[in-house]
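Q&A FORM
Asked by: J.P.
Topic: structure of Hemopexin

PROVIDED:
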Amino acid sequence: MELLTKTLFLCLALALTNGAPAHHDAAVDDASLPDRCDGIGFDAITPDEKGTTFFFRGSHLWEGFHGPAQLSNESFQQLDDIHNIGHVDAAFRMHNIEQLDHHDHIYFFLDDKVFSYHDQALEEGYPKEIQQDFPGVPSHLDAAVECPKGECMTDSVLFFKGQVVHVYDIATKTVKTKTWSHLPVCTSALRWLEHYYCFHGNNFTKFHPVSGEVSGVYPKDARSYFMKCPNYGHGGDYKVLKCSDVKIDAITTDDAGKSYFFAGPIYMRLDTRRDGLHAFPITKSWKEVTNGVDAVFSYADKMYLIKDDQVYIYKAAAHYTLIEGYPKTLKEELGIEGHVDAAFVCPEDHTVHIIIGRTIRAIDLSATPRAVTQERPLPFSDIDAALCSAEGINVFKGATYYNYESPMTLAMSRIAPEPLNVTRAMMGCEE
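REPLIED BY: S.T.
REPLY: Here is the structure written out as tokens.
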């Protein structure tokens, strides 16, 4: 299962990130370009405002998780053309929603200078002395990574120099230092999907951004996780679906604002566009659900996954944990029987709406025992999934969806509205 998880993680995440057929990183038409599969390591790693991750080494970079090297000045022209810096010491993407003039800008560091870029253009007035923008942060850095409030105590940046970490508070412009001697010296660092990685040579170590704690078996070879290389666990090529071919099994948003869709054996986070869209095996987060899902809904900091006549309920904490005593049958948990096609709960509501065939049933989740309080016919059948949000209800059927203002308008409708097409912005598919 671990090998399968790694294989799916690589094939799906890498392909979905860039939306292009997978291929080996070495450029077959230019053998002079560096090949990150040679284990050369990186000087800096950072995502941009669109969620594309850039890997820097010397005067070259790699755009995304697969593809050949290119000169850095092809993407960040003034970096070399004007200042001829040749390489960068560290880089990070700013997270500062209080100051949108700086939010999502990329900062590059070299010696005692800092460069600020947005949309791959150098901001006016840069480069500056590091002390002008980041007082108390040393020069000649090894690595840097952003750390948003909620993952760190405040919106912060972690600056690495040797085994000393300088924690920079963005709002107060103050620095606290920590020594993490248990970590290798990080030559680059990356925050990806709410996890933190210290890269050293061709390896990486995942760490906690506040304590520096390392959990699990590390280091691991970056070539097996953050790039596509021969003989490093890649098990075939996953092609991104065309939007016209999309068919999902379930979709939900939990109380923390994390949005997911499920299709076959995989799921994808939809609220992580700043890190790109990535697909993973369902068993990665919900290990007991081994054969896909029929429907999913979220309620009261819990996520309900329905497969056949079984209901799995997970605590929606940092890591989903199956509640003791589950799974239970649909009859035991919700007072219904039959094949569930879709389910949804609207924000701040206590009613789950269950679609079975051509009927929609309302169940009061605050009642004990739970039972159907209302049942109405629908103007269509063969529904795949449904999601309720502040914008209304989207009912998905293949590569199209129907939008309704509320559960009442859905339940009372007798004619289906004009179908809308699933888009790349919604599902990360190819249009």
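FOLLOW-UP: The first strand starts at residue 44 and ends at 47.
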